[in-house]
Specification:
Keywords: Methyltransferase, Transferase
Shape: globular
Distance between the termini: 54 Å
Family: Belongs to the methyltransferase superfamily. ETFBKMT family.
Organism: Timema podura
Radius of gyration: 18 Å
Structural class: alpha/beta
Order of helices and strands: HEEHHEHEHEEHEHEHE
Strand content: 15-25%
Protein name: ETFB lysine methyltransferase
Pfam families: PrmA
Helix content: 40-55%
Strand order of the largest sheet: 5-4-3-6-7-9-8
């Protein structure tokens, strides 16, 4: 009993140390920014003033730091949430592929019950840092929910996850099943080709369009606008 209890304590201590190390590395290599469509939110991001902005991949201390950028679809969703609190504040919201946690933080700010979901462990640490920075509380989930149809949330947020054609088709098929089950599904995206083709074939509703700030345009291959769509079945 003593041995197993000691191992459990050591494992917990290791996880805590690992988390503290990750937090420190995130803080040291990002800048707190409000230079985006939702200046109400402060986020730890890699910006042009950070050394990692122009670093060689081998020198980056994170694998695939998608959480360190505020992608245009996420900006659109967060802006829409903040501007439409009366529509969303009573919802139970899940932000899939949450990244920096921006959409979940926006939902928490309007009073919604919200979970930020991301399978990347570094992302989850970044989400915790960003929620603390914005003085809100969200649940954080590591479960891979894509493909699961029995969800406890009635609103699903998906931002900037349609970058790969095969995955995008799989994702859309799953999301439409969720809509059939009664969920409100909101998608944020700057106009990636496959998604636009699929959306225009259906009765999906364009609910918002925003002009991107110049810095976001430069970061995202010339996209100038970003959109929020409500999916249909």
């Amino acid at each position: 009993f003593f041995f197993s209890r000691s191992v459990k304590i050591l494992n917990t201590s290791f996880r805590q140390c690992s988390r503290l190390t990750t937090e420190r590395v995130i803080i040291e290599n990002t800048q707190v920014s409000r230079d985006h469509l939702t200046p109400e939110l402060s986020l730890h991001l890699i910006t042009p003033s950070c050394k990692l902005w122009s670093a060689n991949p081998i020198d980056v201390p994170f694998a695939d730091p998608f959480w360190a950028f505020y992608w245009p679809g996420g900006q659109a969703l967060s802006r829409y949430i903040l501007d439409n609190s009366s529509l969303l504040s009573s919802r139970k919201i899940i932000d899939i592929g949450s990244g920096s946690g921006a959409c979940a933080i926006a939902a928490a700010k309007i009073g919604a019950q919200v979970t930020a979901n991301d399978i990347d462990p570094v992302s989850r640490v970044a989400i915790a840092l960003n929620t603390a920075l914005n003085e809100v509380t969200v649940d954080i989930s590591s479960e891979n929910l894509i493909g699961k149809t029995q969800l406890k949330w009635d609103c699903v947020l998906i931002g900037d996850m349609f970058y790969d054609e095969v995955f995008a088709r799989t994702l859309l098929s799953w999301l439409r099943i969720l809509v059939q089950g009664g969920a409100l599904v909101l998608v944020g995206d700057p106009g990636r080709t496959l998604l636009q083709q699929e959306l225009h074939k259906s009765s999906d509703i364009l609910v918002a369009q925003y002009a991107l700030l110049d810095n976001t345009c430069l970061e995202n291959n010339g996209f100038t606008d970003t959109f929020v769509w409500q999916l249909s079945s």
